[in-house]
Amino acid sequence: MNSDDERIEYAINYTEVLRSPKQTLATFGTTNIYYYLVTEPSYSDLVKGDDETVVREGRVLAERPRVVTPSYLVNVEGFSEHAKRYLEMIIQEHGAHTPGLYYGYRNEPKETNIVSSDMRSVVCRLEEEIDKEGNPLTTIIKGVDELWDVSLLKFISDMTRHSLGSNVFELGRRGLLDIDRSGIPLDARRSIEHLFGLVKKGELEPSALKMELDRWSLFEEYEDRFLGLFGK
Questions:
Q1: Which of 80, 106, 135, 152 is most buried, by the most CB atoms less than 10 A from its CB?
Q2: Cα separation of 72 and 97, whole Å?
Q3: What would the pLDDT profile of 116-147 be if each residue is shown by its tens digit?
Q4: How many domains is the chain built from?
């Protein structure tokens, strides 16, 4: 294990959720999680006697989980060759059309403040503020200053794992995990219909719909309908 891997592993092991959100990720909507990520300053070893705490604020937007298959993920941009090889191995072992959930996230940092107080006192004040606001989706995370984004990703990963069971249950209860004869989940078919509607209303670029059809290898099936969007 190289030094970077060791630092990342340390950050993961050190990360602690001091206040968890009181709700899991929504199955049929976007979840807006507000976070306070508290760390000791990276220079704390150089400054003795002065208690300071770094407080980073922001929000993580968790998109509605989508039902996908390994064959879909192979066509998604951004995966390395190693990742795509792993997906091919999954296809060989479990099949190309095994349904799974795909979670999309967007981090929106707000501000960073250095507070002249020890971490325990800072966390207590944050707890009081959160209780007054009453937002059930606010969290406090203790992390490592120079690798704070790793700490945030660790939180996101744990949040996803804790939400998976209820998300799968709700999607399955509505039949959205069912696969048709073409190997396409019902959830994906409904999503494509929604995208067609957005393009027709001018709220989505046709290129985004085309990309989604290509990822599912469905453009030929929908080609006439897609080209009909440009008819007079």
A1: 152
A2: 8
A3: 999 999 999 999 999 999 999 999 999 999 99
A4: 1
